[in-house]
Amino acid sequence: MSVRLGKILGIPIRIHYTLWFVFILIVWSLAYGYMPAQYPGLGVVTYWAIGIACAIILFVSVLVHELSHSYIAKKNGLPIGRITLFFFGGVSEMTEEPKDAGLEVRMAAAGPLMSFLIAGVLGALWYLTSLVKAPVAVTATLGYGGLINAVLGIFNLLPAFPLDGGRVFRGSIWKHSKNLISATRTATRVSEGISLLMMLGGFVEIIIGDFVDGIWIIFLGWFIRSGAETSLQQTLVGEALSGVTVGDIMTRDVLTVPGNITIDQLISEYFLVHRHGGYPVVEGKQVLGIVTMQCVRSVPKEKRQTTTVKDAMIPCEQAVTVKPSVSALDAMHMMARQNVGRLLVFDGSQMLGIVTRGDLMRTIRTRQELGA
Predict the structure, then answer these.
(1) Is-contact 93 79, C-beta < 8 A?
(2) Which end of the chain is more exposed for a tag (fewer CB within 10 A), N or C?
């Protein structure tokens, strides 16, 4: 669940709902904890204003950090689906992995370098405003902004995949071994070790009485472990589907249904007889749309004797279609984004076949088992 803000460099920017909780938590902790301890004597409104300004600086900094990754990726021909800011920071969603180790290292290093650059600029401004005796609210905001960006840069340098440092680590191994899968497995194992140490440290913090910091450390450790395992699976899937197009794996001899039969007929003659979860709807040689189990479930049982397939189907203009030349990996991403289980394959106005999530899973499993 996320809200789209707009586009920067042609990349959609979205905010995940968890970010709002973190924003409130940061503002509250700065207004009631950190700022009064560091800068005593200011009013409550001033502390809240500083907290809000610092939280905004933090999330703008995270966005710029992610944009630096995306800029290097786009400059080298890698498409970026979107950038999402969420609970633990942000993520640039690439639709494909870097093709060589050098690009991986450059992309990963761009983020921490940008964070350190922002920290340097804000730190210099903090120093100058301190010299000229600027209002405390200004120097406090700049000081925190510089500090948090330095922390962000250092944290991302941890050799824990998929953090930037972990990607640099994987890229370095990949460069020497020439094997992306082996490098990813090694980086994942290192990340799991770091995450376990972090979670253990978090439990120790809780035991000695620092509950809040302990919980944060445990969550960060869990995030690193989960991210490493997810990234490993994505790499394995990407390698398994490398070079495979939709045309290679689609079903060409497609079973279709007429649009004038009822939903009850569709269930008894198709869904209960064949293993498919959806069927193209045709009239003569024209493809009208696609009917799926979800379409059937949307029709009340008492109306299935009179409702026709044509009334319940998804029309062609609303259906998700794909060309046979599209890569299988892109088709998988398309299914995930659109939350569908099958895509109609068209070449111009002619339907060539259908590709399903099951087709993709069988291809991945077969190629992995055969080492293809």
Answers:
(1) no
(2) N
